[in-house]
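Lecture 7 notes: from sequence to structure.

We start with a single chain of 295 residues. Read the sequence below before looking at the structure.
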Amino acid sequence: MENLLNHCTLCPRRCSVNRNAGARGFCGAGRTVRVARTMLHAWEEPCLVGAHGAGAVFFSHCTLRCVYCQNHTISHEGSGTEMSAAELASCFLTLQQDGAATLDLVTPTHYTPQILTALCIARAQGLSLPVVWNTSGYETVENIDRLAGAVDIYLPDLKYTSEESGRRCSAAPDYAAAAWAALGAMVAQAGAVQFAADGRLMRGVLVRHLVLPGHRHESIALVRRLWETFGDAIQLSLMRQYTPLYRAAEFPPLHRRLTTFEYESVVAAARDLGMERVYVQSAEAVGAQYVPDFT
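Now the structure, written as tokens:
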């Protein structure tokens, strides 16, 4: 698996740098995994948290440069602690022992080979949690294929249907094409969502979409495309928690909060289509207090 880092094409940017030799591509990640924080995360979707929370592992660095990123200190600046595969596996097992309902791997794409090695080590030592691939959605189909048998739940944060939005907001002019192709591969691999009797998601794809200010029509188009393509095979989570952080002030209308009308119109569009597997958020979900502390 480490050979994948000799000519890194893990994400759609396909930088082709030799990370094993010390080179770093767009994401900024090197040969060794860097982890910003591990925690029992109670603020994920209800089907992921159980009684004690999702076992979240926040990885440093990112393949995107979202101007509104709430985690920019770790995603753009790369703060965190370097870990070997064995140390990472130990973190997975500790989260399980602490009562995590799922193993929630947050922004993992650029560390795919190291994570797969760590999962093998942890499973040999008793890891049994459903593994969640909590991704920006900016993936290649080849990387999703690489995860077959290792990942139970895909949690893509599907951001845009417009390539202009991907270019302007995330420095990824091919975001939509890449993300929608990867989403199709996720659904094909994981199948329709499967829930346990207690409501926990055991397998399938849970698509998140953060409704952005000024992007209401794009969000409605995104929801419609999801329904027309996947029907009720997926679970949808419509998030209203947008908070203008980082460089958002430089990119109107991202400089302001989302209005109730904007969010509710997207929710109404999903309901009108007949979507029933939809999580929605109340206004209380908005605020910087919900951003994890990475200090």
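Residues 175-190 form the longest helix (16 residues). Keep this in mind for problem set 3.
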